[in-house]
Amino acid sequence: MVKRDEVARRAGVSAAVVSYVMNNGPRPVADATRQRVLAAVEELGYRPNGVARALRSRRTWSIGLVVPDNSNPFFAQLAHAIEDETFARGYSLLVGNASGDAARVESYLRTFQDRQVDGLIVVTNGPTEDLARTYEGRVPLVIVVDQPVRGLAASTVKVDNKEGARLATEHLVSHGFTRIACIAGPRDSAPGRERYEGWQTALRAAGLAAPDSLVRWAEFSLRGGAEAVRELLDSSPAPEAVFAATDLQAIGALRGTADAGVSVPDGLAIVGFDGIAEAEYTVPRLATVRQPVGLMGRRAVELLFRENGGDQVHEVFPLTLVSRGTCGCPER
């Protein structure tokens, strides 16, 4: 194992200068000297002792991230944006996949805190009451997607779910549809409830009915969307259009309509929510309400490292309606 002293001898500098270069401080190093040190590091294959570095700096240079389901394209895209930002700041990202299990969320939180990560980001789409009990407050915490948790000192990053659902439903109303169904999320999901409320608000503002018969509470999955739309198509009278609380459900609904021999958008118009990349590749292309995933991921990391970390920040990001073939708009 190559030691720092060997790098110093090869570069013709002191061991302290090697330390300044590898740690970007605390003292400045002339550019020519820095290049000599980096060349020696590359030539000798020197790797700093991470444990010793953590002890000296009282940092582990790692961030813990918990996502609800890493097989969901939206959460995968969000995790990618968070990883890009943490990597750019010189940190490693430890990812825990909750798989929709609250006990696994608690387990990952305890593990990450025991490993003394420098910050925690929790992405949620279900109940969050247990977070207040599990979070020990030793490191900064940011919650993405869900609501602020009562009794928990944490900043949040989210979108206006109700407004996004209203935009999607209002767009379907503008096409002349009057029986617009809603494939909502699980009943215990805050984003799912908010998107359901946005659907209700848009229909009532247009003077249209929003009966329970037009609502299906389904899991955030392809299967959930497919099963929900089959039930809706079997109802009488069947809906003319559907707002789905996630793109994954909407893509599943496309499969369900195909299985039922119903064409989209002529037999049933569909609008989703999230703006995942896969929405570009359905036939027809999926109309959706897009979340600014990259901005949200970067901002979540920024909030962990802000200097005035004592004050909680609750940021709500705007959404964009993307009209495409499934809602009846012309394909571009």
UniProtKB/TrEMBL annotation:
Residue span(s) of domain HTH lacI-type: 2-57
Organism per entry: Tenggerimyces flavus
Coiled coil: none
Alphabetized UniProt keyword annotations: DNA-binding, Transcription, Transcription regulation
Keyword DNA-binding among record annotations: yes
Alphabetical list of PANTHER family matching this protein: HTH-TYPE TRANSCRIPTIONAL REGULATOR GALS (PTHR30146:SF109), LACI-RELATED TRANSCRIPTIONAL REPRESSOR (PTHR30146)
Identification of the protein by name: LacI family DNA-binding transcriptional regulator
Any one GO MF annotation of this record: DNA binding
PROSITE patterns, alphabetized: HTH_LACI_2
Pfam family for this entry, one: LacI
